[in-house]
């Protein structure tokens, strides 16, 4: 055996494999079941997702409503009513399943408590706050009542102030800041704010003592950016990836988790 082959062999033996990337089910297993329902949540656990992501608003009665869009139109039975104008009980009368497929007719808007209680041992729920810091006291109450703890809950949000409030009121929880980035050929709205730089994101995340960043897959991050994020002591996660090449790109950059609508399928695609 040549010296070079021996060196390569030794290198392959001592190379420490990266930890497997975690798979987060975006709004549950939302490719196969209606997003943000118990059907999608349960299916995500069946598909061995490491975590389920879910979206929350505050209803007009001050209770939490699990929903993605600002209104019920697309996934709540067609009525164009703002979610914030509903009570939790009213939201629970919506049909959150029929829009996806007839077999999901009557699927309800879940309670956050139900989602928390469904979390299998060792798995977690990523709770995305879709509103401002006013929701945090109610979130704290619901987590305490339903067994949501640092072990099984991470809070994520685009709203930096909401994450700051979580740090103050629920300091034990992990917090990830969601930041979008326009696709390279996307048409820019004249009013669109440019995304922050990586250095600005790191500074802001550190200032609020956040756990890390959860970035849109369109971010043109380099290995040096990833190192800077890591060196700052921040975690790095990515959303929402339903394309194998894109998932492999982010896995190879070393993200901790990939959020996808297809958790079972994507894990299969990433299997070595
Ligand atoms: O996981 C982050 C992702 O859910 C953010 O975007 O619009 O799907 O809530 P959106
Ligand atoms: Ca979300």
Question: Ligands bound here?
Answer: SN-glycerol-3-phosphate, calcium ion
pLDDT averaged over residues: 94
In CATH, what is the homologous superfamily? Phosphatidylinositol (PI) phosphodiesterase
N- and C-termini, Cα separation: 28 Å
Order of helices and strands: HEHEEHHEHEHEHEHEHEH
* Tally of strands: 9
According to CATH, the fold-level topology is: TIM Barrel
Oligomer: single chain
CATH first level: Alpha Beta
Globally, the shape reads globular
Widest beta sheet: strand line-up: 1-2-4-5-6-7-8-9
What CATH architecture do you see?
Alpha-Beta Barrel
The poorly predicted ranges are none
User: How much helix, percentage-wise, in residues?
Assistant: 25-40%
Q: Work out the strand percent.
A: 15-25%
Helix count equals 10
Task: Outline the biggest β-sheet.
Answer: 8 strands, parallel, barrel
Radius of gyration: 20 Å
Structural class of the helix and strand makeup?
alpha/beta
